[in-house]
Design a protein that fits this description.
The chain has helices spanning 22-29, 46-59, 101-115, 130-138, 167-170; strands spanning 7-9, 12-16, 62-67, 74-82, 85-92, 120-125, 142-153, 156-166. The chain is of the alpha+beta class and 174 residues long. Strand 5 (85-92), helix 3 (101-115) and strand 6 form a beta-alpha-beta unit.
Length: 174
């Protein structure tokens, strides 16, 4: 698999995610509050984050979210679901939240996906994850439904809010 391209806007730079980013990503993955709505509990060790990062890289293009190309403050991934459809997943450490990094990363990856053959992007979000719901809504994603009892997580059996952004929503009309 080839590495994804570097993407940037202002001082937000998305660079290809590597295993060397695992120690920096562990800051987000070990934080129980940041990891609350994840499918698993917070990571107990840096090795657990390294294994998770390795699995993530194999599943599809993944980028380290950085300011000016430095340390990974989080990551964003594009997981191929089927022809023309991909799911976006994102995590950002607590200290980097509230600065627009996730919104910029989401916009960059969405534009990249649409320019490279995808026509539909989806997100699967826990109904109690208000911050993620707001992030995706502000990016133009539309709530399409609830998948009842969709996940078994460390919080128990959880529903999912399915959100989607269509390429046609982002194209200018004459």
């Amino acid at each position: 698999m080839t590495a994804p391209p570097w993407l940037s806007r202002a001082d937000v730079i998305l660079r290809p995610l590597t295993l060397d980013d695992a120690p920096a990503l562990h800051i987000a993955h070990r934080d129980a509050d940041v990891h609350r709505y994840w499918s698993s509990p917070a990571h107990a060790s840096e090795e657990e984050t390294r294994a998770y990062t390795a699995d993530t890289i194999v599943l599809g293009p993944s980028w380290a979210i950085t300011q000016s190309g430095g340390e990974a403050l989080g990551r964003i991934s594009l997981f191929h679901v089927r022809a023309g459809v991909a799911e976006i997943g994102i995590i950002l450490r607590r200290a980097a939240q509230g600065r627009g990094l996730s919104a910029t990363a989401l916009a960059l990856v969405s534009a990249h996906a649409f320019a490279n053959g995808y026509h539909r992007l989806v997100a699967d979000i826990d109904p109690d994850n208000a911050a993620s719901l707001r992030l995706f809504e502000k990016a133009g994603f539309v709530r399409e439904g609830v998948l009842r009892q969709n996940w078994i997580t460390h919080l128990g059996v959880r529903d999912s809010i399915l959100m989607a952004l269509l390429k046609s929503q982002t194209e200018e009309t004459p």
